[in-house]
């Protein structure tokens, strides 16, 4: 089988490369290190490209910009992939406001280039689109909440499992990033529903792992572990540090893609995150890092929350578990933190 992975040097893309390479498939990565353009040298994923190329057997990177329509079309014509894992993106909620054209061109137009290349040259392939919970904008904040000592929590028992795919996606504040990703999400659904192609849309909560090139504006847990180990200061943006995120390790995301690829449901949408078991507030993550590693974070609390930021977001995983019962969360939040701390300590030693 031939797999094309976009954003192959990034967090999710690189996990996908490792996974299909280990299965003996041919894997072609598309990545132009645009993360360094978005976030500066600390955000570069070039290091991960080199690691991947040394650790895999049947993988190569094509330095291609997904905005390059002709380049994408001709790659698909030449390679005819069986599976496309689409992870290349401008991934930051806050950054998008400073680079609106670039954000939209990468996230929306880039996705359209890939979907159309698939329709023209690989119509039997499966396409897994990495979307985001920001397509719901701040609608999840409308759920009644109660304030506990270290976190916000849903006040109604019926919301306990978290946000499902039935949450509305319009008439809410998304950020420009949320808007460009919503365009991509809906386009990917249409290539499934309208054209009957095998597209699956995965709306991520907090996706994480040791290979994330975390920066302040993207990669919350990775950046938090980095500042903890490096002894740098950390600013929490509003909500008293009690905002809740559900963390999923990248290999668990890739397992969901694999399950979908074996039994695709065209145009279907799934929420994917750590779910209730892997959910924690910023304050709770800071405490866990200290408990696990002894690293104490010098944090301060800023008054202002990020615009449209979720207060309590937990992905309801029921639909994914129902359609793909072989899939589940395998890596706990504590194990994620252990792996990330060890990797960060190794980088600094
Ligand atoms: N990490 C999270 O918490 C999270 C949460 C929800 C959704 N997502 C989504 O998951 C996907 C992957 O996220 P990630 O955390 O792995 O991001 P990442 O930034 O680690 O990786 C993305 C990769 O895409 C590459 N890239 C960016 N623009 C490109 C372009 N125009 N052409 C070619 N390559 C390009 C970057 O250089 C980078 O290596 C994104 O769509 C993101 O919106 C991520």
From TrEMBL:
The keyword Isomerase applies. One of its GO terms (molecular function) is CDP-abequose epimerase activity. Keywords: Isomerase. SUPFAM superfamilies: NAD(P)-binding Rossmann-fold domains. Residues 3-273 form the NAD-dependent epimerase/dehydratase domain. This is CDP-paratose 2-epimerase. It comes from Aporhodopirellula rubra. Its EC number is 5.1.3.10. It is an enzyme of class 5 (isomerase). Belongs to the NAD(P)-dependent epimerase/dehydratase family.
């Amino acid at each position: 089988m031939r797999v094309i992975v976009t954003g192959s040097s990034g967090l999710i893309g690189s996990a996908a490369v490792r996974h299909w390479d280990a299965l003996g498939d041919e894997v072609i990565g598309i990545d132009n290190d645009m993360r360094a353009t978005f976030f500066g040298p600390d955000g570069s994923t070039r290091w991960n490209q080199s690691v991947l190329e040394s650790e895999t057997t049947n993988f190569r990177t094509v330095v291609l910009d997904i905005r390059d329509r002709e380049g994408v079309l001709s790659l698909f014509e030449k390679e005819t992939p069986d599976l496309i894992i689409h992870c290349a993106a401008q991934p930051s909620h806050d950054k998008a406001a400073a680079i609106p054209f670039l954000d939209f061109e990468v996230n929306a137009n880039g996705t359209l280039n890939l979907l159309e290349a698939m329709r023209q040259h690989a119509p039997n392939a499966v396409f897994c689109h990495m979307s985001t919970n920001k397509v719901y904008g701040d609608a999840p904040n409308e759920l009644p909440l109660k304030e506990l000592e270290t976190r916000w929590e849903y006040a109604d028992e019926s919301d306990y499992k978290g946000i499902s795919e039935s949450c509305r996606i319009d008439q809410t504040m998304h950020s420009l990033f949320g808007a460009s990703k919503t365009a991509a999400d809906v386009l990917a659904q249409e290539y499934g529903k309208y054209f009957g192609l095998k597209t699956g849309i995965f709306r991520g909560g907090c996706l994480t792992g040791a290979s994330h090139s975390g920066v302040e504006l993207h990669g919350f847990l990775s950046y938090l572990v980095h500042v903890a180990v490096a002894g740098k200061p950390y600013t929490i943006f509003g909500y008293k540090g009690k905002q809740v995120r559900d963390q999923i390790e990248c290999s668990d995301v890739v397992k969901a893609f694999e399950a979908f690829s074996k039994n695709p449901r065209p145009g279907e949408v799934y929420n994917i995150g750590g779910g209730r078991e892997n959910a924690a507030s910023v304050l709770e993550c800071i405490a866990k890092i200290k408990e696990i590693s002894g690293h104490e974070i010098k944090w301060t609390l800023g008054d202002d929350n990020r615009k449209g930021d979720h207060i309590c977001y937990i992905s309801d995983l029921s639909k994914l578990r129902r359609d793909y019962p072989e899939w589940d969360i395998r890596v706990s939040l504590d194990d994620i933190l252990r792996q990330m701390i060890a990797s960060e300590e190794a980088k600094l030693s």
